[in-house]
Design a protein that fits this description.
The complex is a heterodimer.
Chain A lengths: L14 E2 L16 E3 L2 E3 L12 E5 L7 E4 L3 H7 L4 H6 L2 H8 L7 H10 L14 H4 L18 H15 L1 H15 L12 H7 L7 H34 L6 H18 L16
Parallel strand pairs in A: 3-4
Antiparallel strand pairs in A: 1-5, 2-3, 4-5
Helix pairs in contact in A: 1-3, 9-10
Chain B lengths: L24 E5 L5 H8 L3 E7 L5 H7 L4 E4 L7 H4 L4 E4 L17 E4 L11 E9 L10 E9 L6 H8 L1
The chains are: A alpha+beta, B alpha/beta.
């Protein structure tokens, strides 16, 4: 899960302070009050207290920590205002937006729309067409209960459960991402976050998320195989054009070097070169 | 685009999940920042109308949604041409939706943050819902309550048409 740290700017100015105590990251973050009106950056922001102080990491502080208010940009990010809109707003507008108390975060809006049975909008039966005629007999026509269209009670729980189940994978990804982002420097053998690339093509809430991600993996495998064969053909054609009939010492050296390049390339995956890599000199 | 889950070190452009292939239209009744409008736009729902009494963002709304009609709330305004052309009405203000005759319109869903009274229960099914920001992968502890009305039938605005016919 995300926490306040995900929007903090480590270069923002503030009053240097000591490092806050470490907190165990739970599956669902909460507001962590450290002292009066001061909160931990590994928790949530108190919505009703816009002037709260936050213990934030800082690259300029001698203690590496500062205590400060959120900046306007951080506040807007926290309230899910899109970056494109932020850049389009003037400074005064941004400040006014930060003070907009009844503002509804867009993530809430989007989630609510996802849970609403929008597809039933075009399936709801008309009350009756006879009522439209307004011929004096409209009051005698009683609406028939919908026979084919499911009722809201039937639809909503199903849709809500389907949305929640479809987000189970992204939530797992979210926890992975939170762990990954805890480290500023990643180790060399850290697993590749493939979902960063997958999410460019497959939406997180896509009902066929797992199937599409699997298909993307297969597609990558095919393209990788094609690249390896192309590499081999390129080298062979280059070698034949440069070393025609009798193989000299230089030709033998090129062959050894090229074979090494091809071997390393063929042992690589889409994401990494397991055996290292050599420059393709041809 | 929304702030992504992985928007930690400057990567702030994410991918919106768009699962609505229908062409739906909506009207937004708002008093401040039009969060509803940006949300529905992310779901490819066309915003056709804005209704507000006094909104400091009206000039920017006009710029951001140039194809949407903007109406200032007035009790004497004739709402019939407006209310019957959208599928969804969204409201975050205290303008009474009943006075806008929205519950007599052909809309299928009405979502409001203020509880509306005098809603014809025979046509509309009421369903309250509260959502926490943290449950939507947000980072605030805020919680918002919504009052959702689903149309059991698509009403062709019979009350108003009856008045017109007289």
């Amino acid at each position: 899960m995300r926490n306040l740290r995900s929007v903090l700017d480590t270069m923002a100015a503030g009053r240097p302070c000591g490092a806050p105590p470490n907190v165990s990251i739970t599956s669902k973050p909460t507001v962590i009050l450290l002292r009066a009106n001061s909160f931990h950056c590994d928790g949530l922001f108190p919505w009703n207290n816009r002037l709260a102080f936050i213990f934030s990491p800082s690259v300029f502080s001698p203690t590496r920590w500062v205590c400060r208010h959120l900046t306007v940009i951080e506040m807007l990010k926290m309230m899910d205002v899109p970056d494109t809109l932020q850049s389009a707003l003037m400074t005064a507008n941004r400040a006014a937006l930060c003070k907009d108390c009844p503002l509804l975060p867009m993530k809430v809006v989007v989630r609510l729309l996802d849970m609403s049975p929008l597809e039933t909008c075009q399936k709801i039966p008309l009350l009756t067409q006879k009522r439209l005629k307004v011929d004096g007999s409209e009051t005698s026509v009683q609406p028939e209960p919908p026979s084919s269209a499911p009722t809201v009670d039937e639809i909503s729980p199903h849709l809500i459960s389907s949305v929640l189940s479809s987000t189970s994978t992204p939530e797992d990804i979210t926890s992975l991402e939170a762990k990954r982002n805890l480290k500023a420097t990643k180790s060399d053998d850290a697993p590749v976050p493939e979902y960063l690339w997958d999410h460019v093509i497959v939406a997180e809430f896509d009902p066929h998320y797992a199937t599409k991600v699997h298909a993307l993996g297969r597609l990558r495998g095919l393209l990788l195989r094609k690249w390896k064969w192309n590499l081999l053909h390129e080298f062979l054609s280059w070698f034949r054009s440069h070393h025609t009939s009798n193989i000299t010492t230089a030709g033998h050296r090129d062959w050894i070097a090229g074979a090494d390049c091809i071997r390393r390339a063929w042992n690589s995956s889409w994401w990494s070169s397991g055996d290292g890599s050599c420059p393709f000199f041809w | 685009m929304l702030q992504s889950e992985y928007a930690l070190y400057g990567i702030t452009e994410g991918i919106m999940s768009i699962n609505c292939d229908l062409h739906l239209t909506c009207g937004v009744v708002c008093s401040g920042w039009p969060s509803w409008a940006f949300g529905v736009q992310a779901r490819r729902i066309e915003v056709q109308f804005f209704v507000f009494k006094d909104n400091a963002w009206r000039h920017l709304i006009w710029v951001w949604f140039p194809h949407a009609g903007i109406f200032v709330y007035d009790k004497s305004f004739l709402w019939i041409p407006v209310i019957n052309t959208v599928d969804i009405w969204l409201s975050d203000t205290n303008i009474p939706l009943v006075k806008l005759h929205i519950f007599e319109s052909s809309a299928s869903i009405v979502i409001t943050q203020r509880r509306s009274r005098q809603v014809p229960s025979g046509v509309w099914k009421y369903s309250p819902l509260s959502m926490k920001h943290v449950d939507c992968s947000g980072i605030m502890d805020g919680e918002w309550c919504f009052h959702i009305f689903f149309a059991k039938f698509k009403s062709p605005c019979h009350h108003l048409l009856r008045h017109l016919s007289l």
